[in-house]
Structure formats: structure tokens, C-alpha cells
Amino acid sequence: MAKELSDRLSLQEGDITKLAVDAIVNAANTSLLGGGGVDGAIHRAAGRELLAECETLGGCPTGEAKITKGYKLPAKHVIHTVGPVWNGGKRNEEELLASCYRNSLALAQKHGQKSIAFPAISTGAYRFPMDRAARIALTEINAFLDGNKEFEKVVLVCFGQDAYQSYLDAWKNLSKS
Ligand code: ADP
Q1: Which residue's CA is the nearest one to ligand 1's atom 27?
Q2: Where are the strands (E) in the chain, listed by range?
Q3: Which amino acid residue places its CA nearest to atom 5 of ligand 1?
Q4: Residue ranges around ligand 1 (CB below 6 Å)
Q5: Catalytic-residue membership of 39
Q6: What is the spatial distance between Cα 92 and Cα 77, in angstroms, rounded to a whole number?
Q7: Alpha helix (H) ranges present in 47-123?
Q8: Other CB atoms closer than 10 Å to residue 169's CB: what's the count?
Q9: Is residue 14 classed as helix, strand or coil in its secondary structure?
Q10: In this structure, which residue's CA is closest to atom 19 in ligand 1?
Q11: Residue 89, by phi and psi: left (phi above 0), alpha (psi -120 to 50) or beta?
């Protein structure tokens, strides 16, 4: 299932490793040396060369982002960002998640990329509530697209109906405000 939210932003259900965009975003951990969830899926699909490049990067702080090549992925690059672990919301989690989206988009822009796909960062093992995460993702992506008219496409990849519905609800609420 796919749905256009605006001419440059769409929702798509399924596996982010299948998308042929300029960059897919990885919800990594601070080591950048692989993990479970989407991180494991991306490393499996990209092959061992991705891990070898990640080993040269020296990790990544929460909220920031680093770029590698895509190797065997259909995507040209991977932007690795580290989302916050949800701890009830009083440890700056919302701002850190917003930084993940801002920094990933800025890095894509800096490298001349025009299309990017995001998973729902922090909403798996890191337990960030999906509805809040969806609102933050859409707010940051909208602001970026408003300021960067030449950027062509942002895809929000939903791994399951829960994410899909949360993005749709967040989009309706944002459009009202
Ligand atoms: P985090 O540690 O940041 O929470 P996870 O990988 O555990 O990262 O989960 C982040 C989100 O990615 C979750 O919503 C999960 O359902 C989703 N996800 C897992 N595998 C994939 C995949 N192959 N493609 C897209 N999204 C995925």
C-alpha cells in the first residue's frame, strides 16, 4: 500500500532495504556496528562491505547522522542516525528524535541527494511511542521540504499497519493546524 501525503512526501508499507532512492536512513545504535531490527536488515542486504565502512566511522552520538555507501542495496547511500531510547519523555527524547530527522535531511542535502526514505526511527527496540514519533517526523520533514524546493522525494516506510495509521493521523492533525 502506498499513499501520497503531498507531491513530495509519501507513505509506503514494506521493507526499506528494497527502495531504490538516493539514500535510505538506518535507525542505528551509537556503535554503528549493526544491531537488530531495521539496522540488521540493512546490513544483511548491503553486505559485509557496509560493516567495514562503518568500522571506520568511530560511532555516532544520539541525534546525529553519518553517511556511507549503499553497497549491494538498491539505494546509493545509507544515512545512519541514532535515535533516542524512550525513557518516559523527560530526557530530551523528542528533541533528539527531531535532530535525527533534521541531521539526516541536512546530510542528504549536503551530498546533493534528491530522494530519501526513512524508517520510523526509535519506534522499535527503543520504544518511542509511534504517534509522537510520527508527529515529529512529519513536522521536521515538512519544514525541510518547505525550505528546500529542489528536493524531490521523501518516503516514510511503514513496517506494519500501526506505523501507517499513525502517519495518516499525524498528517491530518498537522494539516488542520
Ligand atoms: P530503534 O532501535 O531505533 O527503535 P528498530 O529497528 O528496532 O530501531 O525499529 C525502528 C522501526 O523500524 C520500527 O518501527 C520497526 O518496525 C521498523 N523496521 C524494522 N525492520 C524494517 C525494515 N526492514 N524496513 C523498514 N522498517 C523496518
Answers
A1: 38
A2: 2-6, 9-13, 23-28, 65-69, 77-82, 115-118, 153-158
A3: 124
A4: 15-17, 27, 37-39, 41, 83, 119-126, 157, 159, 163
A5: yes
A6: 29
A7: 48-54, 93-110
A8: 14
A9: coil
A10: 38
A11: left
* Sheet with 9-13, edge to edge strand ranges: 2-6, 9-13, 153-158, 115-118, 23-28, 77-82, 65-69
Q: What's the gap in Å between 137 CA and the centre of ligand 1?
A: 14
pTM: 0.98
State the closest ligand 1 atom to the C-alpha of 37, by its place in the atom list counted from 1: 6
For the beta carbon of residue 174, count every other beta carbon within 10 angstroms. Answer: 14
Strands 23-28 and 153-158: unpaired
- Residue of 7, 15, 39, 146 with catalytic role: 39
68, 57 contact by CB (below 8 A)? yes
| Ligand 1 center from residue 123 Cα (angstroms) | 7
Q: How far is the CA of 175 from the centre of ligand 1 (A)?
A: 26
177 residues of the chain, pLDDT tens digit each: 688 989 999 999 999 999 999 999 999 999 999 999 999 999 999 999 999 999 999 999 999 999 999 999 999 999 999 999 999 999 999 999 999 999 999 999 999 999 999 999 999 999 999 999 999 999 999 999 999 999 999 999 999 889 999 999 999 998 887
CA distance 148 to 69: 23
